[in-house]
Design brief:
By secondary structure, the chain is mainly α. It has a single domain, classed as Up-down Bundle (Ferritin). Helix content is 82%, strand content 0%. Helix 1 runs antiparallel to helix 2 and helix 4 runs antiparallel to helix 5. The N and C termini lie far apart (53 Å). Bound molecules: fe (ii) ion (FE2).
Length: 181
């Protein structure tokens, strides 16, 4: 049986409300993460993503208006779990390079959670032909992908590697050589 328009719309509203909750939590968490980061570029990355996150909160609010629903936040256990993990790291590790590496990992877990969540709401909005809502969600999705890329670049700068295994790198280099010949 095909899902009804109203059931899918209710799911979309639910998921947007969880994201609205998550982004509000992140505005607070990113402040603390910036305070705990030692590397200036990492602190800057957290602060600039925090500023961006504040605008995401505002843009998410417009999607509820678009859907003729009250702006609402629904408790999201997943983001709370991820942020608890970050809190634990900040309370357990002293400020320094190890905590920086740990914070990058914790922040990237959050980014990829957001990427998956925005892909979902964007897909639902498209299915429901809600172009304006889809557009807002897609815009935020690209910001989360960029934030993740930026953290990967910082991790590489810290000598952590790009997160791509040596075997994959080797394969890619072979492909490039093949393409050149
Ligand atoms: Fe976000």
């Amino acid at each position: 049986m095909e899902p009804t328009y109203s059931a899918l719309k209710a799911l979309l509203v639910q998921n947007l409300a969880r994201l609205y909750y998550a982004e509000n939590q992140l505005v607070r968490a990113l402040k603390m993460m910036a305070e705990k980061a030692t590397r200036p570029e990492l602190r800057e990355a957290f602060l600039s993503h925090r500023a961006e996150t504040k605008t995401q909160v505002e843009r998410l609010a417009t999607t509820f208006v678009e859907l003729q629903e009250p702006v609402q936040a629904h408790y999201c256990q997943a983001i709370d779990g991820l942020l608890q993990n970050g809190n634990w790291l900040m309370h357990t590790l002293e400020r320094g390079s190890v905590l920086d590496s740990a914070l990058i990992g914790a922040a990237q877990q959050v980014e990829l959670f957001e990427v998956a969540s925005y892909r979902n709401v964007c897909g639902l909005a498209m299915q429901l032909e809600l172009a304006r809502v889809a557009q807002v969600c897609e815009g935020i999705l690209y910001e989360e992908l960029e934030a993740d890329d930026k953290l990967s670049a910082i991790a590489e700068g810290l000598g952590m590697g790009s997160g791509v295994s040596l075997a994959v790198q080797e394969e890619e280099e072979q492909e490039e050589r093949k393409a050149e010949n």
